[in-house]
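I hope you will forgive my troubling you with a question about protein structure. I set the record out below, with my sincere thanks for your time.
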Amino acid sequence: MQRALKLSLSSPIWMRETNLSLTHLIARSEKKDRGYEAAIHMKIICSDEGVSIEHLGAGERDGYTEDERKRIERGESIEQKDDETFVIPDGPYIFEQIPFLPEEMELIRVLLPYLSKTETEVYVRIYKENMLETVMQLLFPIG
């Protein structure tokens, strides 16, 4: 794995809310066009009984339009659409990109190095970079 970086999202990423699991979103991404993205917001809870995952929400969106991509390149925000109620908020994150797509049950092993307290929140983002490559990104809110 690559080393984690500090990333600051300058604007929120809005998505349509979904109830699909990480495994289903990964499978769905295989059928989608370039630019598709999905995310699950999770809380990882460490206790004497072990480690558990609590789902706080999930969303997905198709790729940005050409106009939206140009706005992003100019550093402009993309406005929330009426059907987009799930958000990865703007702000600072610890960021890690994973070169493979672990299923939900395998994800906990990937997250273990980041679990330094009783509860840790993470956004697990799936992004289809091109027709052959889909990546997983971990975004841990700072602060």
